[in-house]
Amino acid sequence: MGISRNRGLMALVVAGLILVGCASKAPEEEVPALEPVAVAPAPVKAEVPKEPAASITGSEKVTISKGPGMGTETLDGIFYFDFDQAIVKRSGHPELDKHAKVLKENPGFRVRLEGHADERGTREYNLALGERRANGIRAYLTAQGASRTQIEVISYGEEKPAVLGAGESSWAQNRRVAIKYRR
Amino acid sequence: MTGFRLACALLISTLVCSAALADLRIEVTQGVDNAVRIGVVPFNYPARTRLPESVHEIVDADLTLSGRFSTLPVQQMLSLPTSTESVLARDWRLLDVEYLVMGEMVRMEYGFRLRFELYNVFKQSVVLRQVIEGTEAELRDMAHYVSDEVFAALTGIPGAFSTRIMYVTADGPAGNQNFKLNIADADGYRRETILASKEPVLSATWSPDGNKVAYVSFENDARPAIYIRDLRTGLTQQITNFSGLNGAPAFSPDGRQLAMVLSKDGNPDIYVLNLENRRLRRITRHYGIDTEPSWRVDGEAIVFTSNRGGKPQIYQMLLSDLSIERLTFEGDYNAKASLLPDGSGLVMVHRREGVFHIALLNLQSGRLTVLTETALDESPSIAPNGSMLIYATQMDGEGILSAVSIDGGVKFNLPSSEGDVREPAWSPQKTKVFTPISP
Questions:
Q1: Which of B291, B315, B336, B351 to probe by mutation at the A interface, max A CB count within 10 Å?
Q2: CB contact, 8 Å: B376 with chain A?
Q3: ipTM for the whole complex
Q4: Is residue A25 part of a domain?
């Protein structure tokens, strides 16, 4: 148990280190580069436990700490799908793992999984398809330790496109599931 | 609105006023080759005041928009007869007019009396002669009634001009759209918005008597629920509140039951709710998607969309023994089917070479005919006379309604002045039926 927790923490630290170099991924609260050089260890130690490991932002996203003094990261909450498919893409697994970890470690957190489809095909079929997609994400999260009671699934089908207009570039952005955090 | 309309009727030219009130405008894109040539003569109205509605113009527009008639402009008419006795057949033969609609209107204490005739110029015989009465507010209904009678007499098909169309509009940027559920006359006039919401509204459908509509709305806590609205009282009732999908409502032909799709038990399956005793019966049980139920006219079978075979196809279930039969085999996407009133075939959304069209499947011969040439077509709805169907498509990147005759011969568009238009549902009944009185 202790080992796996540590390993998880290590993974987060590593992820954090990688992400520091990626400016677009780390928004507002990026820690100044000077910080790691700080010389006074004692007072810092006292402050560390006060920082929450994860917090929900106003835009229904979640921000996690990348480890003591490593800054924070806002998790990507949009996952895309292929036409008439509800299979969770492998490329989304690493980010979903982080969401699952947040949910597992914060039993009080609730998420709404909003499933969507592109405009092609019929509206009711697309509502069912959007639900399939959101269910797929839920199955992944619960398999990784999130509780089913934390997760609500809702489908909007093709009724709430992210982008208006026809064509594969719009359609690809509309076939999605959005993970929305609520308090 | 009523005040505005009244002011319009009294002060300004009626025609301008009506045109401003119409949100859908009809443009015929394809008519029949051998359109019947007909003259709709202005109905004589012996009064100094103008009629609040130009009845003959409405009849003329109806017949033109059906795609089966070619009307003679009033300016080209050599005379304006009001009855058979005053018709100079030679004048009309010169103009190559086959039939004439004419008559007169008289103001009554509570409204108007309309006497109209349909005259065969070549045979010099009266085809139809009727007298009807209606209130001032019913003038448009009276005009559509005349169109229905003329259409039926000359084509053998009941007219569908006295019907209404329900449709959804959405406007605004992605993520912040306004949704409206509207009902208008089949010619686009007299639109009423029955629901306006910031959350999606879809799958609106009529009860068989035309007095109620059922629809899916996300207005309650951004979750889908099925609602039934009584159009006479204006009262709306939330019918379902299950977790998951609450969708695709469809009234049974007797109006007592509502088929729907629920996913409360894990998968989208079809259920039938008895509206009288509120008992819910699950009729499909499959891990695939089952959706878009539509009743057979006898109420004993339901056709629906299912991807149980891997791709969406149309299946039929007999309610007596819940046996299921697959109906479509051509193409890899067939959905949202509805049976023709005579049961001979079904119309549905069909994908061919990656493009979504509306298609007709003849259930006897198994022959599939693609009826539309547009793309991204969906939501076909059959007119109560079974001769036309209206559907949603796109033009210049915007959702519009379009209509096509079941034989594919007539096509017209109904572009809107207000955003994206979608999900048309043709009313099953006439709005107003007049009883002819003896002349």
A1: B291
A2: yes
A3: 0.89
A4: no
